[in-house]
Amino acid sequence: MSPADTQPPSTPDDPTAHLPLLELRDGLSDVVDTDSALTETVEAFRSGTGPVAVDAERASGYRYSHRAYLVQLRREGAGSALVDPIPFGDLSALGDAIVDAEWIIHAANQDLACLAEVGMVPRKVFDTELAGRLLGYPKVGLASLVSEVLGYRMRKEHSAADWSTRPLPAPWLVYAALDVEMLIELRDAIEQELRREGKWDWAQQEFAAILDAPPREPKPDPWRRTSGMHRVRNRRSLAVVRALWEARDQIAESADISPGRILPDAAIVEAASAMPTDRDTLQRLTAFKGRGAHRHMRSWWEAVDHARRLPDSELPKQGPRYDGPPPARAWADRDPDAAARLSAARAAVAEIAEAHRLPTENLLAPDTIRRLAWSPPKDVDLDVVMTFLRDHHARQWQIALTAEALTEAMTSEAKVKPLD
Hints:
The protein is of the alpha/beta class. Helix content is 49%, strand content 7%.
């Protein structure tokens, strides 16, 4: 029995609830990896009707790059297609064929960048994950939403597979095709819920904001995100972390291998804590006994030795560079009035979010609340707060729901509460 032949259960008590989604309606098609097959696929999707379900598979955890190693699509009248972008490099012809359609993507922020790399850029999106958040679903993974909304149990056993593998095994391809099998139905059911709850316009604004968002700027000092950094206590040790991280990153990028597969974060932190004085001591450390660590031992020692010899003036600062307010836990001591404003603002936004069944972070970005509370504009009134929110990329529906409460929080005599 295929999904097309069954009806989703109407209640959780239905004996047919959570039917396993195991079969493809149209069977598993061949991977599109030749020019002739791509031409046929482009024409098929150009001739299709309605929105297009789109997904992409990367090789996170295996490769340094975040490129797409498989692109899955489904559209009424065209069926499903599994496209291997590697032989082509550029899929702009396919992107152009569906550019005027709405693209249904689950967690669009995860896939849009790798799709853009191969020339596929939508003009309109429907993000089923984000829509699920607006509707207050506690779990918004694709499998969870398909189960909750449509009543089918999806297979997720290949979610962490190495999609750069060639040829791709047939079970992986079935898994990948199933990811777009129900997206159109899920989108339609979620739209009905959004309209029923008066959140359809909110969703439209959110989807537009996804496409309007500027490219993400690289975060400063990415080496500071090394797992276990809390164990590194002084600036000289921080320099070792930085030197090893940068050496590892260069090797990983050159080989297109995930950095953690070359040298684990645990090894970097162990070296920074031990501060070895020679190469032999370094390679005797427990975390440096793996094959990847041993292969590049010369590079690791050169990095450690360089960090050990740096003058104090070139050592990294103890804390990361950040252009925003200080950590909230320090506000009560540094600026009690700001702490009071933040406490009142958080409470107000949390109350509004609960009333509308929204995650607080989707109602308003926590960073925006912190910035407003730490350094509010002069002569705060409703118009000033609305302008502040707009300047910090809040959508109109968010401003309409929160501006008045935030204005009161910025001007009231709120009592200081403990801040996380």
